[in-house]
TrEMBL record:
Residues 315-371 form the Nucleolar GTP-binding protein 1 Rossman-fold domain. Residues 86-244 form the NOG1 N-terminal helical domain. GO terms for molecular function: GTP binding. Residues 249-307 form the FeoB-type G domain. It comes from Eucalyptus globulus. Coiled coil: none annotated. CDD domains: NOG (cd01897). This is Nucleolar GTP-binding protein 1. Keywords: GTP-binding, Nucleotide-binding. Gene3D superfamilies: 1.20.120.1190, P-loop containing nucleotide triphosphate hydrolases. The lineage of its organism: Eukaryota, Viridiplantae, Streptophyta, Embryophyta, Tracheophyta.
Length: 445
C-alpha cells in the first residue's frame, strides 16, 4: 500500500491536509512528476457529509452475479423482479399518536343500551372499551407487519440498499418487535377485558377498566419505540433514489475524488455535492437526461478504493450493488492528474478488476481533469514504475484505449462526451428491449 493510498484509507482520522502537508517530514501527501518536481496534493480531508447515508456494519457483499445471471439460475423470484417497493411502504404513525388516538376512540364506546343494572352496565362498558382499545392499538401494527415487504421478496438492488443502509438484520428485527408488541397488546387487552366482564360491582368494573388501560398504556410506552424505529426506517427507505429498470441508465464509476459528480452535473439534471476530498458522494444519487424526447437516468456513485471486497466500506458496496443488480451502462472516470490523491497504478488495478467483473455492461472511459494533465505522465513517489508493462505505460499517458479526455474546467471534450454518452444510452435501449423480449416472449407478437 503506498503512502498516499494509506493516508486516504485513514482520512477520517486526519485533522486537515494543510496541517498534514505543513508538518509532514515525508513525501506522503505529495506526488512527483516524471521531471522530479514535487507537488502537494490538494486537501483531501475535510469535515464529512454524514447526513445522507450512515455507514453501518453489514455483512452484505456485492456479488459478481448480475440480475441476469441470477435470473438464469432461477434465483430471482417473480416478486423481486421489480423495484419500487420503498415507495409503497405503509405510512407509519408515531407510537404516541397511535396510543392517544386509540384511547380517545375507546373512551367514546358506550355500554349496551338495553342493560339497566348499574353494575352490569359498568362491566359491559369496561369490557367493550378495553376490547376497542386493544383493537385500535393492534390494527395499525398488523398493517405494518403485513405490508412492509419481506426482505426476500425485494429486488436484489433494494435488498442491498436495505442491508447497507440499515445494517444486518435491523429491518427484520424492528418488524419482529412491532409484531411482538401487537401480540402482547392483544393478549393483555383480552385478559383485562375478560376480567372486567367478570366484575361483581360497579366499582370493581371501573377499577378493572382503569387497570387494563394503564397496563396497555404502560406496554405501549415501554415497547412502542419499535414503531418509532419503523417510522425512521420507512423515512430512510422512501428517500432512496427511485430507479426505473426499463429506462436506460448511465452509472458513473471510478476512484474517489476523480470528478464523477462534476460530470454528473454536466451530463444530467442531478446536482450532487462536489468537493475536493474522497467520499464526498455518500450514497447513490440519481439525475436524468432528456435527449430527443428520450429520457435517461444517470447514477452518481461513491468512489472505489483498491482493496478486497471484504474490506470495502458500505459506500463502496453500494456502488458495486448498483453495478451488480441494475442494468446500467458504465461511464468509468480516470484521473491521471494526481489531483484525486490516488496514483495511476492504483486506479488501473481497480479499473481492471471492475472491467473484468462487469464486462457484459456497455462501457465508456473518460479521462477527467485534462486541464491539469502535464506533458509527462504524473507519477507518485511511492510508485514503482520499473514494474510497468506496456499497458501500464500507455495507461499513465492516455488512459485506456478510446478514452475521451475531458475537463469540466476548460470544457475540453464535453461535447464529444455528451455525444458518446447519447450513443451508449441508445445502445442501452436496444439491450433493454432485447432482454425484455427474451424474458417475456409474448412481447414479440
Ligand atoms: N481542475 C479540474 N478540477 C476538477 C475537474 N473535475 C472535477 N474537478 C475537481 O475535482 C474535485 C473532485 O470532484 P468531484 O466531482 O466531487 O469528484 P468525485 O469523483 O465525485 O468524488 P467522490 O464523490 O468523493 O468520489 C473537485 O474539487 C472538483 O472541482 C476538472 O475537469 N478540472
Ligand atoms: Mg462524488
Amino acid at each position: 500500500m503506498n503512502g498516499v493510498y494509506g493516508l486516504m484509507q485513514q482520512w477520517q482520522l486526519l485533522p486537515s491536509s494543510k496541517f498534514l502537508l505543513r508538518n509532514s517530514k515525508h513525501l506522503h501527501g505529495k506526488y512527483l512528476s516524471r521531471r522530479g518536481c514535487v507537488y502537494p496534493i490538494v486537501c483531501f480531508c475535510k469535515s464529512l457529509q454524514t447526513n445522507a447515508y450512515e455507514v453501518v456494519k453489514g455483512s452484505y457483499l456485492p456479488t459478481t452475479q448480475t440480475a441476469q445471471n441470477l435470473k438464469s439460475k432461477g434465483e430471482v423470484s417473480i416478486e423481486n423482479e421489480n423495484v419500487g417497493a420503498f415507495q409503497k411502504l405503509p405510512m407509519v404513525m408515531p407510537s404516541v399518536d397511535i396510543l392517544y388516538s386509540s384511547l380517545r376512540k375507546a373512551k367514546k364506546i358506550a355500554p349496551t343500551k338495553s342493560i339497566t343494572n348499574v353494575a352490569k352496565r359498568e362491566r359491559n362498558k369496561g369490557a367493550k372499551q378495553l376490547d376497542a382499545l386493544m383493537k385500535e392499538l393492534a390494527a395499525p401494527l398488523r398493517d405494518y407487519v403485513d405490508n412492509f415487504p419481506k426482505k426476500k421478496y425485494l429486488h436484489p438492488y433494494e435488498r442491498s440498499l436495505l442491508e447497507l443502509t440499515l445494517g444486518d438484520g435491523n429491518y427484520e428485527e424492528v418488524l419482529m418487535k412491532v409484531d411482538t408488541l401487537r401480540k402482547k397488546v392483544i393478549s393483555v387487552g383480552k385478559e383485562h377485558a375478560s376480567l372486567c366482564a367478570k366484575s361483581l360491582s360497579k366499582r370493581e368494573a371501573e377499577e378493572r377498566l382503569n387497570q387494563g388501560k394503564e397496563k396497555l398504556e404502560e406496554i405501549f410506552h415501554h415497547e412502542g419505540k419499535a414503531i418509532d424505529e419503523l417510522l425512521d426506517i420507512a423515512k430512510t427507505l422512501r428517500a432512496m433514489p427511485v430507479v426505473d429498470l426499463k429506462t436506460p441508465t448511465l452509472c458513473l464509476v471510478g476512484a474517489p475524488n476523480v470528478g464523477k459528480s462534476s460530470l454528473v452535473r454536466i451530463l444530467s439534471t442531478g446536482k450532487p455535492e462536489i468537493c475536493n476530498y474522497p467520499f464526498t458522494t455518500r450514497g447513490i444519487l440519481m439525475g436524468h437526461i432528456a435527449l430527443n424526447y428520450q429520457r435517461f437516468q444517470v447514477t452518481d456513485t461513491p468512489g472505489l478504493l483498491r482493496r478486497h471486497d471484504e474490506n470495502r466500506n458500505n459506500l463502496e458496496k453500494l456502488t458495486l450493488a448498483v453495478l451488480s443488480h441494475l442494468p446500467t451502462a458504465i461511464l468509468y472516470v480516470h484521473d491521471l492528474s494526481g489531483e484525486c490523491g490516488m496514483s495511476a497504478s492504483d486506479q488501473y488495478s481497480i479499473y481492471k478488476e471492475i472491467k473484468e467483473r462487469f464486462n457484459d455492461q456497455l462501457w465508456l472511459d473518460v479521462i477527467s481533469k485534462s486541464d491539469l494533465l502535464q506533458e509527462s505522465p504524473v507519477v507518485f513517489v511511492s510508485e514503482d514504475t520499473t514494474v510497468d508493462d506496456d499497458e501500464m505505460v500507455q495507461y499513465r499517458k492516455e488512459g485506456p484505449d478510446g478514452a475521451i479526455h475531458v475537463s469540466v474546467k476548460s470544457e475540453r471534450g464535453l461535447n464529444e462526451l455528451k455525444q458518446s454518452v447519447h450513443k451508449l444510452l441508445v445502445a442501452q435501449i436496444d439491450r433493454i428491449k432485447n432482454e425484455t423480449s427474451v424474458t417475456c416472449p409474448e412481447n414479440l407478437t
